[in-house]
Specification:
The chain is mainly alpha-helical. The chain is about 65% helix and about 5% strand. Strands 1, 2, 3, 4 and 5 form a five-stranded antiparallel beta sheet that branches. Helix 3 crosses helix 12. The chain is globular. Keywords: Membrane, Transmembrane, Transmembrane helix. It is found in: Membrane. Pfam families: MFS_1.
Length: about 525
């Protein structure tokens, strides 16, 4: 639009708004109606510009005698820039502020960082604890698995709670709960095994609500075109939490004793909780500071924001893709949790590393996962943006997440050096991280409104794999070998691959759980992405 048209459309005002010191009168204002109050006109100079002011019976109009080249400016942008100038905002032309949705993602990332720091410290501390208290491998397996007793209880409950009251309160509760339980662990160990079992189960209760709550929050905050990257970043917080816990635990144990690990790690949760309360919101609709442009972007690809009042359990459990999620989550977590809890022991017993070396070398697979998870998320989102269907993308990513670990675990029985064994472990875990863009992203794909409940369902199966797998590993090691442990994991990875490719989907409209009336394909930027 031209500059003249721009001024005509935006500047209608009364003469007192013009600073008198800047006005030079060329012609005195004169009444053209003869009444003294009707209509008039006059020419004035404002700075270097000559202005023409006209008045009719009810309003004043200003014309500027200026010449300029035509230029284009969007209506929304022009009004936004004008408001910023009038308010004295000097940020016009500068980069926009950091997106609030990614602030939420980073806070979830930091929560999961603390989550795995507090979880893996036991896998290091259990070595001096077992020596001090004379625990057998079977007892160690029971202690490690006791965490999953509580973790199992809150998967579905946490999903229901998050979907009904909001993810902010649920995730905040979880972090505080597991942080307190972490601090109490050394005290419980000194009191006896029953107390230690209870405290570890209590810790599992707190961490059990974290994943459903996070999934609920991100399903509301993150558009589908950014889903894989955001989830990959959050889950890489778990991997970096493992890196941090495994790296610092040996040092703390060596310098201050094994109880210091639990006291120091557990206290960090209070710092996170204070930031979470001040910055986080369960939904974009709840955030009064969210910019309108970002809110529009988020809501354009979201489903109904009405609160969840009931869960359609019969409908959910009648669908094959839901069972594909459940079975695949079980198969995936069996191998993942075994490596999470038993890897330092493997390095210590098989590779003959000392305590410090076991912790440091156990870091490498998790560090690899942190990198490959984000690489996989970037690849998955890029494929979706280029038109590849979500179904195909999820199947590709999860197939890599299954077959990659299966291949590298089979190589462990053929290597003859600690360096190659560590490399195989790192490659196994690195390929496993592609699952974050596979099954872990699929809950939001097929049922975004009930993503918390759906993740709670599938992760319940995953936790059962952790309970049985961790305890079974202790039994297998007492009566067999590490090769037997890895063979079971490989077999389950292969089963998961078959089930996932046969029954999974990335389409939302296959089910429309809870959003039959609110799903709006016309608001989705890429309408073919769910096909």
């Amino acid at each position: 639009m031209s500059a003249k048209a721009f001024l005509l459309s935006h500047y209608s005002f009364s003469p007192p708004n013009i600073p008198r010191r800047n006005l030079n009168v060329h012609n005195s204002f004169y009444d053209t109606s003869g009444s003294g109050i009707g209509r008039g006109r006059g020419r004035f100079r404002y700075g270097e510009r000559e202005l023409l002011i006209k008045r009719n019976s009810s309003s004043w109009k200003l014309w500027a005698d200026v010449k300029s080249k035509p230029f284009k400016i969007a209506d929304d942008d022009s009004s936004s820039l004008l408001r910023k100038k009038e308010d004295g905002d000097n940020s016009v032309g500068l980069p926009q502020e950091f997106p609030k949705r990614w602030v939420i993602v980073i806070l979830c990332f930091s929560a999961f960082l603390l989550c795995n720091m507090d979880r893996v410290n036991m896998s290091i501390a259990i070595l001096p604890m077992a020596s001090e208290y004379n625990w057998t491998p079977t007892t160690v397996g029971l202690i490690q698995s006791s965490f999953f007793w509580g973790y199992l209880l809150t998967q579905i409950a946490g999903g229901i709670w998050a979907d009904t009251v909001g993810g902010k309160a649920v995730l905040g509760f979880g972090v505080i709960w597991w942080s307190v339980a972490t601090v109490l662990t050394p005290i419980a160990a000194k009191l006896g095994l029953p107390f230690l079992f209870v405290v570890r189960a209590f810790m599992g209760i707190g961490e059990g609500v974290a994943m459903p709550a996070m999934n609920n929050i991100l399903s509301k905050w993150v558009p589908v075109s950014e889903r894989s990257r955001s989830l990959a970043l959050v889950y890489s917080g778990m991997y970096l939490g493992s890196v941090t816990g495994l790296a610092f635990s040996p040092f703390l144990i060596h310098e201050f004793g094994w109880p210091s690990v639990f006291f120091s790690f557990g206290s960090l949760g209070t710092v996170w909780f204070a930031v979470w309360l001040s910055k986080a919101y369960s939904s974009p609709l709840d955030d009064p500071t969210l910019r309108p442009e970002e809110k529009k972007l988020i809501l354009s690809s979201s489903v109904s924001k009405e609160p969840v009042k009931s869960i359609p359990w019969k409908l959910i459990l009648s669908k094959p893709p839901v069972w594909a999620l459940i079975v695949s989550h079980f198969c995936h977590n069996w191998g993942t949790f075994i490596l999470l809890t038993w890897m330092p022991t493997y390095y210590h017993q098989v590779l003959k590393f000392n305590l410090t070396e076991s912790g440091l070398f156990a870091v490498l697979p998790w560090l690899t996962m942190a990198v490959t998870a984000n690489v996989g998320g970037w690849i998955a989102d890029s494929l979706v943006r280029r038109g590849t269907s979500v179904t195909v993308v999820r199947k590709i990513m999860q197939t890599i997440g299954f077959l990659g670990p299966a291949f590298f675990l089979t190589q462990l029985s053929h290597v003859d050096s600690p360096a190659m064994a560590v490399l195989c472990m790192a490659c196994s875990q690195g390929s496993d991280a592609f699952s974050q863009s596979g099954l872990y992203s699929n809950h939001q794909d097929i049922a975004p409104r009930y993503s918390g409940v759906l993740l709670g369902l599938s992760n319940t199966a995953g936790v059962l794999a952790g309970v049985f797998g961790t305890a079974a590993t202790g039994y297998i090691l007492q009566h067999g070998s590490w090769d037997d442990v890895f063979k079971v994991s490989v077999g389950l990875y292969l089963v998961g691959t078959v089930v996932w490719n046969a029954f999974s989907t990335g389409r939302r409209d296959w089910l429309r759980i809870g959003d039959e009336k609110s799903f709006r394909p016309d608001l989705v930027e890429n309408r073919q992405e769910y096909l």
